[in-house]
Amino acid sequence: MVQKTVVHLTDDVDGGPAQHTLTFALDGVGYEIDLSEQNAGRFRQSLAPFVRAARRAGTPRRPVPVHVEVDSYDPQAVRAWARSRGIDLPPRGRIPQDVVEQFHAAGN
């Protein structure tokens, strides 16, 4: 099945169609606003004197990605293996790590 998602932006000021999403920050709070070509121009024009007088701030720090090791396994296979060995597991939800370790130790 093919699914197509169409996004129509609406101007946050006048409710008409929007072509631009502008991102800005003021007093340490970030904002986004969807605007038409005309309103985006008005927005930029009204901020122009302040932007000319301002100095650029450093880019905000982004969090350092954390590497997480993911133990990939087939939950159905682990549940079937555990059932065959009399290990009681709920039919849904997270499988305890010790059961996964036993599953791998058994050569799976």
Automatic annotation (TrEMBL):
One of its GO terms (molecular function) is DNA binding. The keyword Magnesium does not apply. The keyword DNA-binding applies. Residues 71-106 form the Lsr2 DNA-binding domain. Residues 1-58 form the Lsr2 dimerization domain. Keywords: DNA-binding. It holds the Pfam family Lsr2_DNA-bd. This is Iron-regulated LSR2 protein.
